[in-house]
Amino acid sequence: MTEKKRIQAILDILDKYYEKDVKCYLDHENPLQLLIATILSAQCTDDRVNIVTKDLFAKYKSAQDFAMANLKELEQDVKSTGFYKNKAKNIKTCATTIYEQYGGEVPQDLDALTELAGVGRKTANVVRGNIFKIPSVVVDTHVKRISIRWGITLCTDPVAIEMDLMKKLPKEHWIRYNTQVIAHGRAICTARAPKCMDCMFLALCPYGLSKRMDDLTEEAKEALEKGHMY
């Protein structure tokens, strides 16, 4: 099977088992909220971020509100997400730029987004893909881990992985690939003790097949190599 056909088979299985409609796991009602929630999600679970932002977005309703916030108070508001001092500083600085340079509206342009404090390509692409529906590849820990396990990329740098996925995945799959892979990573292809023997991608996954081979007897391995068993 060619790499192109194998990748298409993976995408077909993703569409079969996981929702095609893009589902963002971070609660938000507008671009600014998603931008801030994504900044907070670094080294933090989406569930914890959603708990924090429920009160945070009731307290601060606009870029101006965040820009004018007392930094120490904002630190306490986001403390439970971890790295709270750096996150609070970035949120305040980012919101100030949005308020002063963009009239309070989050920009769509990738370069403009990545120039904002605390915003890298991942955060920018989350906003571009989920809010503005601009085809974007989001490389988070799940996408990085699983794309490497599937052999779609050999890179470990997130930007290099993003470039690989943009080359190899059809553009119409870019946005939903992230949310589908997150769902798969949470349910089956976990970072530790992945459920390879229960995985619908096993036949297409070099990592899973290597794990399977490790568990087989020498006789079974020989039979598999001769084509007597799948």
Q: Could you describe the largest sheet, including whether it forms a barrel?
A: none
**Amount of beta strand:** under 5%
**SSE order, as H and E?**
HHHHHHHHHHHHH
- In the predicted model, the low-confidence regions spanning at least 5 consecutive residues are none
Q: CATH homologous superfamily of the largest domain?
A: Helix-hairpin-Helix base-excision DNA repair enzymes (C-terminal)
Which class best fits the helix and strand makeup?
Answer: mainly alpha
Rg, please? 20 Å
The averaged pLDDT comes out at: 92
CATH class group of the largest domain = Mainly Alpha
The CATH topology of the largest domain: Endonuclease Iii, domain 2
GO molecular function: 4 iron, 4 sulfur cluster binding; class I DNA-(apurinic or apyrimidinic site) endonuclease activity; DNA binding; DNA N-glycosylase activity; metal ion binding
EC number: 4.2.99.18
Organism: Zhenhengia yiwuensis
Protein name: Endonuclease III
Describe this structure in words.
Helices cover 59% and strands 0% of the residues. Helix 5 packs across helix 6. By secondary structure, it is mostly helical. The longest helix has 18 residues, at 84-101. The protein has two domains: 1-23 and 135-230, Endonuclease Iii, domain 2 (Orthogonal Bundle); 31-130, Hypothetical protein, domain 2 (Endonuclease III, domain 1).
